[in-house]
């Protein structure tokens, strides 16, 4: 035993520099990722900044009960669920389709040009994107309303009407990220064995038939994995993406859990209540990912772990 | 190769038309913003500007460049991007390199330790309380320190390091080269491409950062460019200092034009590095996806 400990000690000493180098990084993850995770217990307290976590009173599930009886919370949960669902049904398939279409472009130079352009919006900040959208959708100066006017229609105040905010949120999400999302599918397509296409060609399958019965099925494992990851983030639309488009006129349908947590938590200092909401969000996300993984394993054999 | 069927040819032409239109919807809004930023206020408000400047003028840019708060925000963003990216690379590499070496026993433990933080992340308020305890609220370091290592980038860099030839490192060790000597003379020179690509990703992240500053910085002196830009969008009237050079020509500036000029300036750095960025991100995504 003594010698084994001695061996371990000698080993550590021999590679001490490697171990020492990794210490700051490990401390970083502990301090900035684990400590706030433990700090989430304030959801079960009436957290008071002066008393701290150790001094604040424990209240059990009171904040969770308050959450489910709160009209605002239920409305915002509804918005979040709806937007999450639209994102899944409308936005998720777009990169897959786009990758298949891009893959059919035979002129390499043109294909590269298209790719360069469709990847680009992903690197603009959400603030800049909201600015661009405000510009093109503006009432008097925007090109969209000019086009509507050209068609003899009345101008619409898109960003100031509650009924358009969800379309704008989903649309801007597609505009920004669907091109970038094609990269992984294009790589998967590039990895398909060309023999499969040749065999299909010998069997008399046309190009469209080949897309349907070779390309798409070959993409299925990638699609499943990304779908599972996406489902885990169902309630996680991203704070910035939504916040930059919100204004008092479209708040009713546009506000989501993340923007509400910011407003009620940081601005109105309801610390414990909004932490309870955040915790609820994480737990739902985890359950969704476990559930999705279970069904995926059962049906297609693909799973995350 | 058989000659393609008529149906396929129709599909292919339709596809080209569709993809061209699609890429126009990605690029035209930007050109529209550019055209507006170079147009006079009457032209913008009259709805005359689409994709080409009307009554061309630099006045909107002159206004933005004459604004002290713009320069301050610009300087904060440049500083945070440069300094923050250096911190990111140093911190990420100093964890990723040891954990990539087979000599480091307990590698999988560290990997699990990091992976857990990807799956479970704390809500906003516990993070805010931590920043307060660490005196990072209203401290510009909050834009750099809490994001020092991105877990995804850590995995990318670790898998890059683990592809370095282990024989080279062993040989150096046998020759009596110390661990720091190995890092300095072998690892760093070989990892320049990885450092460059992750560095560009981190830099774009810093330049586009918005919510961290919104959460933790109340003092406008430390607002980075994105926060200042958002505040500009929220304000309907832009007041001009009567003593400033553009005051006399105020008739030609407009809130719209000034907003559009600021968008262009705030995006310019991204557009400039985009060609370098594009070279790297396809490969980056591949490595990342192999990992997961």
From TrEMBL, chain A:
Keyword Translocase appears in the UniProt entry: no
Family: Belongs to the binding-protein-dependent transport system permease family.
Key words, A-Z: Cell membrane, Membrane, Transmembrane, Transmembrane helix, Transport
Any Pfam family hit: BPD_transp_1
Domain of life of the source: Bacteria
Localization of this protein: Cell membrane
One of the GO BP terms on file: transmembrane transport
ABC transmembrane type-1 domain segment(s): 77-292
Name of protein: Protein lplB
Membrane topology label: Multi-pass membrane protein
Transmembrane segments: 12-31, 81-102, 123-144, 164-190, 211-231, 271-295
PANTHER family for this protein: BLL4140 PROTEIN
Keyword Transport: yes
Gene3D superfamilies listed in its UniProt record: MetI-like
GO cellular component: plasma membrane
């Amino acid at each position: 035993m003594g010698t084994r400990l001695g061996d371990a000690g000698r080993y550590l000493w021999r590679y001490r520099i490697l171990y020492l180098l990794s210490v700051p990084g490990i401390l970083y993850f502990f301090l900035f990722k684990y400590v706030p995770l433990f700090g989430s217990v304030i959801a079960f307290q009436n957290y008071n900044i002066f008393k701290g976590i150790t001094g604040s009173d424990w209240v059990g599930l009171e904040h969770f009960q308050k959450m489910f009886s709160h009209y605002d919370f239920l409305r915002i949960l509804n918005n979040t669920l709806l937007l999450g669902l639209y994102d899944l049904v409308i936005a998720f398939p777009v990169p897959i389709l786009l990758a298949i279409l891009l893959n059919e472009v035979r002129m390499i130079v043109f294909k590269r040009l298209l790719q360069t352009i469709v990847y680009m919006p992903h690197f603009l900040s959400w603030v800049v994107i909201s600015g661009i959208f405000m510009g093109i959708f503006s009432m008097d100066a925007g090109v969209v309303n000019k086009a509507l006017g050209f068609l003899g229609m009345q101008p619409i105040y898109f960003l100031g009407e509650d009924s358009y905010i969800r379309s704008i949120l989903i649309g801007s999400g597609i505009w920004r990220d669907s091109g970038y999302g094609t990269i992984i599918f294009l790589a998967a397509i590039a990895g398909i064995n060309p023999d499969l296409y040749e065999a299909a060609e010998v069997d008399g399958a046309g190009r469209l038939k080949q897309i349907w019965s070779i390309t798409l099925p070959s993409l299925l494992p990638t699609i499943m994995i990304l779908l599972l990851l996406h489902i885990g983030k169902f309630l996680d639309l991203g704070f910035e993406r939504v916040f930059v488009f919100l204004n008092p006129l479209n708040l009713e349908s546009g506000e989501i859990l993340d923007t509400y947590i910011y407003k009620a938590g940081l601005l109105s200092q309801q610390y414990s209540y909004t932490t309870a909401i955040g915790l609820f969000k994480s737990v739902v996300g985890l359950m969704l990912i476990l559930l999705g993984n279970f069904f995926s394993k059962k049906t297609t054999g693909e799973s995350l772990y | 190769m058989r000659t393609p069927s008529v149906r396929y040819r129709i599909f292919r032409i339709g596809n080209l038309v569709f993809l061209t239109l699609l890429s126009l919807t990605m690029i035209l809004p930007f050109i529209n913003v550019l055209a507006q930023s170079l147009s006079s206020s009457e032209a913008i408000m009259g709805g005359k500007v689409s994709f080409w400047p009307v009554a061309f003028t630099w006045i909107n840019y002159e206004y933005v460049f004459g604004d002290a708060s713009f320069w301050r925000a610009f300087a904060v963003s440049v500083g945070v991007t440069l300094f923050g990216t250096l911190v990111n690379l140093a911190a990420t590499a100093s964890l990723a390199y040891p954990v990539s070496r087979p000599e480091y026993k307990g590698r999988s433990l560290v990997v699990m330790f990091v992976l857990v933080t990807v799956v479970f992340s704390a809500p906003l308020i516990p993070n805010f309380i931590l920043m307060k305890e660490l005196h990072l609220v209203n401290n510009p370091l909050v834009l750099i320190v809490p994001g020092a290592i991105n877990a995804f980038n850590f995995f990318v860099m670790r898998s890059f390091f683990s592809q370095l030839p282990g024989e080279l490192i062993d040989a150096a060790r046998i020759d009596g080269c110390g661990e720091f000597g190995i890092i300095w003379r072998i690892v760093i020179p070989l990892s320049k491409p990885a450092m460059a690509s992750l560095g560009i990703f981190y830099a774009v992240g810093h330049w586009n950062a918005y919510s961290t500053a919104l959460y933790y910085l109340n003092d406008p002196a430390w607002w980075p460019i994105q926060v200042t830009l958002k505040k500009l969008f929220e304000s309907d009237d832009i007041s001009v200092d009567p003593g400033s050079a553009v005051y006399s020509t105020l008739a030609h500036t407009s809130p719209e034009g000034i907003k559009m000029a600021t968008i262009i300036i705030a995006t310019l750095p991204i557009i400039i590095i985009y060609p370098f960025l594009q070279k790297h991100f396809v490969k980056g995504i591949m490595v990342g996806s192999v990992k997961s």
